[in-house]
Amino acid sequence: MNQTVATYKDFSETACEVGEGPTYDTATGTTYWFDIPGKTLLEMSGKGEETIHTLPFAASLLAVIDDQSQLIATENGLFRRTVADGSLTLIKELEPDKPENRSNDGRVHPSGALWIGTMGWQSADNAGAIYHYYKGELRTLFDGITVPNAICFTADGATGYFTDSPARKVMKVALDPATGLPVATPTVFLDEAASDRGFADGAVVDADGNFWCARWDGGCVQGFDPSGVCFETIELPTDRVTCPAFTGRDLSRMIVTSAYIGLDDDQMRAQPDAGETFLLEARFRGKADPRVLI
């Protein structure tokens, strides 16, 4: 049964043009997320203190390397960010021959490998790809992608998910748990051609293997069991919901980013919370994001 609930509160009232890439650092109790076109990294301490870091370029993903440094995925490649002073050092270029592209959705596999998707700034057809980065080596997993999203993994590392949002199909692929590399051809997990809840955007898998997906132009987060049955819809006060992540010491809460890009004046008046980040009391616990091995 698909249970519809509406239990949220504001996590951050800072409005993001395109909020993306939420993640929780279990070691410090800090939550991070981005405003991609705003070129900012937002940080919320465990005490509820918010800091906004200005970046020299657009970024969309943060992963912990160690206690002193983080990896961020940007329009100019993968960078090491020093936590103490915010300094950035290039680790790996992604698409130096495609200056019109930027990073988008991604997540760290339990092996420590990073999956990161790219796309055109104007969402040009088939301009992007999904890459696998591990210990200095970058591989192309899937190319001809328009808007890569919903990249996430089961806790055992044996299954990965992803989508090209305009295609309206969420894909499922068997992986080598030791490397995060595909070992089979992807199959369709969710065929959403007839969905009335917009497009699949960012997603995360909880500790029980359920798939939680933000709905761009759908105004909600939906939970699907491992067989693809939708069992919960969490309504939110804005149409453009972008990405969920589990947060809190016991990973029993969920933060969800959103966007106001592309909304006209009437829509903005009707959705004053557009672009804000929301906090949900989840019925399922998440799993900690692994550290990335660079």
From TrEMBL:
InterPro entries the UniProt entry points to: 6-blade_b-propeller_TolB-like (IPR011042), SGL (IPR013658), SMP-30 (IPR005511)
Tagged with keyword Hydrolase: no
Species this chain originates from: Flavimaribacter sediminis
Cofactor binding, per record: Binds 1 divalent metal cation per subunit.
Obligatory cofactor(s): Zn(2+)
Lineage, top ranks: Bacteria, Pseudomonadati, Pseudomonadota, Alphaproteobacteria, Hyphomicrobiales
Protein's UniProt name: SMP-30/gluconolactonase/LRE family protein
Keyword NAD: no
Stated family: Belongs to the SMP-30/CGR1 family.
Active-site residues, Swiss-Prot/TrEMBL: 201 (proton donor/acceptor)
Record keywords: Metal-binding, Zinc
Superkingdom as given in the UniProt entry: Bacteria
Binding locations of substrate: 102, 104
Alphabetized GO MF terms: calcium ion binding; gluconolactonase activity
Every SMP-30/Gluconolactonase/LRE-like region domain range: 18-259
GO annotation (BP), single: L-ascorbic acid biosynthetic process
Binding of a divalent metal cation, residues: 20, 149, 201
